[in-house]
Structures are given as C-alpha cells and as structure tokens.
Amino acid sequence: MKTLLHICCAPCANQCIEVLRSDKIEVTGYWYNPNIHPFTEYRARRNCLREYAQSIDLKLLEKDEYGLRPFVREVAEDIAGRCIKCYEMRLFDTAKTAAEGGFDSFTSSLFISPYQNHELMREVAERAAKEYGVEFLYRDFRPYFKAGQEKARELQMYIQKFCGCVFSEQERYLKPGKIIP
C-alpha cells in the first residue's frame, strides 16, 4: 500500500513514519502548511523536514507556498473556529494530491498531536477522502507523541513552541500568568 503522509513538522512525523513503515506501508511525505506563520517559522519547519526526509530516505513532495494571505482569508470570518478551516485546507489538499498521484491512501502527522482536535480532524479527513475518492488511512498516533518528541531532541531537530498559526502563537503568550509587554 502506498500512502501520502501530510507532514506538519519533522518532530511530529518521525514516529508516524516509523509506525507506517513497520506496517509495511510505502510512505511518501507531503509538505503543505499554509497555516504556519511567521515566515521564519514556516522556513524552519520546512527545512528541518527536508533534512530529516533526506536522512531517512523518505520521498518528499512539497507544495511549498507560504500561505499567509490565503490562510487569513479562510479564517478571517471566524478566528475562534479557525482550526476546522486549517484542517480542511491541509487535508483536502492532501487527499486531492494523493488521488492525483495514484496513492492508495493518505493520512497526516497531525494525528500524533494531543493538542489537536482529533475527532474534528478525522471527520474532515473522511470528507476529503470521500470527495476525492481516495482512502483515508486512519491511525491514532497519539501514543507515540512522547517518543517522537524524545527522538526529535535526540536528533537535535527544530521543535516549535506552538501549533503554527499566528493566532496560536499569540495564545501561548496569553495564558494565565504570562505577562505581555
């Protein structure tokens, strides 16, 4: 089975790749993340993934478009509900790319994060699969999150401190007890 793995970052992807490969699934990585801002963050995550993919002989497809304007246009009407738009942008694009590329299925490294809305992502991925006629390969990678973070530290990968969008970066500073200058 050939699957296209949407990758948000190398630290989240390393265990997903290992699990899928151990299940004898042929994995191709896919970088498409118009939600990641600012550009320096986008570049750091993308470059880290490129280096990691090369080191583990992972084929990597890239839709390398810094998407500040398209992302903001998508979420502007409902900033509080932005996550569904973010999931839709990335997972529908991944499903489309998988279908067009002759992959049997697609999935995402987002499914490793305990901080994401897992059920909402799954629902979006299932809609995307139906629309593009490609299987959504569901895996709950969350049990591997800690191991993935440990491996990322071991390999001295760039590890981000927020989900990726500019609004989540702001929220990390607005948590109770944090002082904003």
Main beta-sheet strand count, sense and barrel state: 5 strands, parallel
CATH superfamily: HUPs
Give the oligomeric state of the chains in this entry, treating copies of one chain as homo and distinct chains as hetero.
Answer: single chain
Identify the CATH architecture: 3-Layer(aba) Sandwich
List keywords for this structure.
single chain; 181 residues; alpha/beta; Rossmann fold; 5-stranded parallel sheet
What does this structure look like?
The chain is about 50% helix and about 10% strand. It has helices spanning about 10-20, 40-55, 70-75, 80-100, 120-130, 145-155, 165-175, and strands spanning about 1-5, 25-30, 60, 105-110, 135. It has a five-stranded parallel beta sheet, with helices on both faces. It is globular, with a radius of gyration of 16 Å. The protein is of the alpha/beta class and about 180 residues long. The chain has a single domain (about 1-175), classed as HUPs (Rossmann fold, 3-Layer(aba) Sandwich).
What layout of secondary structure does this protein have?
Blueprint: E1 2-6, H1 10-22, E2 26-31, H2 39-55, E3 59-62, H3 68-75, H4 82-100, E4 105-108, H5 118-132, E5 135-136, H6 145-154, H7 166-173
Parallel strand pairs: 1-2, 1-4, 2-3, 4-5
Helix pairs in contact: 1-6, 4-5
Condensed summary:
With 181 residues, the chain is α/β, with parallel strands linked by helices. It has one domain (2-173): HUPs (Rossmann fold, 3-Layer(aba) Sandwich), CATH 3.40.50.
